[in-house]
């Protein structure tokens, strides 16, 4: 059988442990040539809006994502072509002028909260994983991450959570569990589930 790229989708709510799961997969298969496309890199270009207008955008809604670009990038990689992955600046809510060159690999992970909300992306994936965690745990992780890594205040994190993050999760993310081949409770701490995922990836590589 001809060698081809295996595309793995990893979705789940904010701060559910997706990044940890991705890191554990990439670490295990680093000798196999593995790459990751983060949905966070594919926010639309909002440079036509003022800074104050960008501050009030709903970044948890599917309409904030440039799915057309992401789909075209996945298709190009499937065809053996390289792509230029955008770099997004969360401080300004803008794409930077720089990109990251991604070449076709044996394994490409597509990671982000909303990837299963798009039917075209679902069709392009060989394996779909939903990383799950209790809402209170996700909220505490989100507060810690946004305050330490993105310079946000506690009040702004809380306001955004109740205004957009939570309602968007209930409307666009939680329902996409139905599309998952594997659901991983407890995120990166679920060693049994991660071991099963690794075995499945190995099977796909060797099939």
How would you characterize this protein structure?
The protein has 207 residues and is of the alpha/beta class. It has a single domain, classed as P-loop containing nucleotide triphosphate hydrolases (Rossmann fold). 41% of the residues lie in helices and 21% in strands. The protein has seven helices and seven strands; from the N terminus they run E-H-E-H-H-E-E-E-H-E-H-H-E-H. The protein has helices at 18-28, 51-55, 67-78, 119-124, 135-149, 154-173, 191-206, and strands spanning 6-12, 34-38, 83-89, 94-102, 107-111, 127-132, 182-185. The protein has a five-stranded parallel β-sheet with strand order 2-5-1-6-7, with helices on one face. The protein has a two-stranded antiparallel sheet with strand order 3-4. Strand 3 and strand 4 form a beta hairpin. Helix 5 crosses helix 6. It is globular. The model has no long low-confidence stretch (mean pLDDT 92).
Q: What would the principal axes of the Cα set say about the shape? A: globular
CATH topology: Rossmann fold
Radius of gyration: 17 Å
Helix amount, in percent? Answer: 40-55%
What's the architecture in CATH terms?
Answer: 3-Layer(aba) Sandwich
Order of helices and strands: EHEHHEEEHEHHEH
Question: How many beta-strand segments?
Answer: 7
Number of helices: 7
CATH class group: Alpha Beta
CATH superfamily: P-loop containing nucleotide triphosphate hydrolases
Mean pLDDT: 92
Termini separation: 8 Å
Strand order of the largest sheet: 2-5-1-6-7
